[in-house]
Amino acid sequence: MKTILCYGDSNTWGCVPTLTHGIPVRYGPDIRWASVLRTTLGDGYWVVEEGLNGRTTVWSDPVEGEYKNGKNYLIACLESHQPIDLVALMLGTNDLKLRFGLSAWDIASGVGTLASIIRTSPFGRDGAAPQALIMCPPPLGKLTLFAEMMMDATEKSRQLPAYYKEVADRYGCEFMDAGQVITSSDVDGIHFEASEQQKLGAAVEARVKEILG
Q1: Distance (Å, rounded) from C-alpha 182 to C-alpha 138?
Q2: Which residue from 142, 146, 140 is spatially nearest to 159, judged by alpha carbons?
Q3: Residue 198: half-sphere exposure toward Cβ, Cα within 13 Å
Q4: Residue 72 to residue 75: CA distance in whole angstroms
Q5: Does residue 150 contact residue 107 with C-beta atoms inside 8 Å?
Q6: Which of 117, 126, 170, 183 has its CA 20 to 30 A from that of 90?
Q7: Model pTM above 0.85
Q8: Where are the domains of the chain?
């Protein structure tokens, strides 16, 4: 059985777009893109959903906590779920927060750090490194609830695909621009509507079959 680790943030967790601050609401497993991926791939594949609300690439969040740093947990996660055939990595949206003051290049560089960890780890088959699919998040939509937190981030979000592609090439990873498949919801500008979650799951399924056969 081939194992796929989906490592991401609230959009991998399956957060429903909202206009209010409060406890996040999660889509059911029939809607979340990683769950859709598991269902559509069928027998012979196992998909691990590893999404965390607020997760960044490599930055410890001074407001939400150091555990939001995607680098801190990655090695433990890889080792826990080994042997892993493919890591589908989709992070970077939270790096756009004003508090981090990052450029699009900085964000892509954070993705590169994670890609390097994956591609040099021994947690694939027979001690080899897993393959990796770097997924660039779609550009931000109409910001409402998160407008101040994401101030001046919309244009940077549009710059990410080119930088992510460079990172994927540098570290021998596959690449997918999610913005060519789905859009972020205009309810809050960050999260995905149910239909977009399902579309993304189907698109990733096609890429996984190209990569793993």
Answers
A1: 7
A2: 140
A3: 8
A4: 7
A5: no
A6: 126
A7: yes
A8: 2-212
